[in-house]
Task: inverse folding
């Protein structure tokens, strides 16, 4: 059984609503905001001067794609365990040049 729990509304004058409103307005007026490209914390006043660090940009994009990367790894593992995948592994091993015969 589920119960619907209703939170405070603007009509409420409880201290809970007032403290939540005050807390949320502190976030709205932050002096730093994340860069949408690399996620770095950038001073709002210097937003136009910000240049993304290529390494941080790559890390941030990989973080955003972490679920897709994990899904790819899982799919690849499944394929390598299939008959086709095992055959391709065998063939790749067989076609690999011996050390020193490049």
Result:
């Amino acid at each position: 059984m589920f119960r619907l729990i209703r939170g405070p509304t603007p009509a409420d004058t409880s201290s809970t609503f007032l403290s939540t409103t005050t807390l949320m307005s502190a976030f709205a007026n932050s002096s730093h905001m994340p860069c949408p490209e690399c996620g770095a914390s950038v001073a709002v006043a210097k937003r136009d001067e910000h240049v993304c660090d290529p390494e941080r940009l790559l890390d941030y994009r990989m973080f955003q794609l972490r679920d897709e990367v994990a899904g790819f790894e899982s799919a690849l593992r499944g394929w390598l365990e299939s008959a086709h995948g095992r055959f391709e592994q065998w063939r790749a091993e067989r076609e690999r040049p011996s050390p020193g015969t490049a």
Helices lie at 15-28, 54-64, 66-80, 83-95.
